[in-house]
Amino acid sequence: MPAPGRTRSWVHRAHRFLRILTFLFLLCLPVFAQASLGSWVKGVLHLGKYSETVATEVATLPEDHGTWGLAFSPHGRYLAASSPQTAFVQLWDWRKDRVVRRFRRSGSDIMVTTPLAFSPHGRLLASCQDVSIDVWNPHTGAIVGQIQDPPSQGGCQALAFSPRGHSLIWIRGEGGLAPKDAFFVYSTRTWAIRWALATRPFEPNALAVSAHGHWAALGGGTNNSSEVGFQQQIALVNLRRHALVRLIGTFPMSQWWGPGKPRLGPSYPPMALAWNSRNQSVAMGVWSAGMGAANVIRVYNARTGAQVAGESGPVGTKISALRYTPHGRYLIEAGIDNTVEIWDGDHHHLLQKIPHQAWSLAVSPHGHYLALGEGRQIQIWRLQS
């Protein structure tokens, strides 16, 4: 049994230690309270136009032509850029402000959009143009694969690699009236077709693949007739079952111009599509050519088809690009009021507005950098992680 004096000594030390902790807590309490109160007021009342600055410009790259295609390499060191006004794809070492390689495309029509994609391991770079797809080794410049599509069957609209890089997925615009395949999956080992899917009457125009590679979302719609209009939709393709399993009606039916027929709502195929793998939602953006403000961006739950968010823009708004950052932290939009907007991943709060008109966007695979293609320059922004 401890002696009474020793017990009183330990009790005294414990009381003294508690008094010191209490003093330090009271000393820091005003600072903690002010920070917490400020965050609470800003979060609840949402004071100010934007709640924070999440992007900082770090580099500007000169371009002779407008940039309509951008893609970061897997580690973010290189940036591929393409323009519909030139036959070349340029590979930038953007930190050193220099072009390290130029790839010549095989397509004959240069006045078309030119989607780009790096494979996840970084050993392949694909460019989609008109009726041809070129695939290069970005380290050597050698062409390692080519896919040719007959001109009578429409052109390539969008492409993406599967998350493991085993497949190249691409879609083409419908040409003619006969039902035919519009969704293709090719092997990146042999460049032979694995499988294809006919989607008519749905006509695809944009593509987004989920992070785990089980689903693909197609932005497009159904053109009922030249006099009735075009119904924008999202089609969900199960990549494991090789089947189109769901159509989500997105925007109201639009009518073409005609005597006594004003164009109502968005009236062109969707320009942009993005998949948020954090909550399995799909964002879609269109070109509004209606008679007033229109809901040019809508976000849907991919599981249920329910709309969970949306944003309106003035007449003439053209959503040229949409991107979710990895893990769905931010949704980045190009087109509303000729600016680039950065929203939280749930599209509840506008975090930052960049006053630049961008025709293309790219986010590095780790989510650290954002590239904007606008006019005769490419801007690189660092994203807050």
Automatic annotation (TrEMBL):
Top-rank taxon, per record: Bacteria
Which Gene3D superfamilies does the UniProt record give?
YVTN repeat-like/Quinoprotein amine dehydrogenase
SUPFAM superfamilies listed in its UniProt record: Quinoprotein alcohol dehydrogenase-like
User: Where do transmembrane segments lie in this chain?
Assistant: none
Family annotation (SMART domains): WD40
- Name the chain's protein: WD40 repeat domain-containing protein
Instruction: Give the classification, highest ranks.
Output: Bacteria, Pseudomonadati, Pseudomonadota, Gammaproteobacteria, Acidiferrobacterales
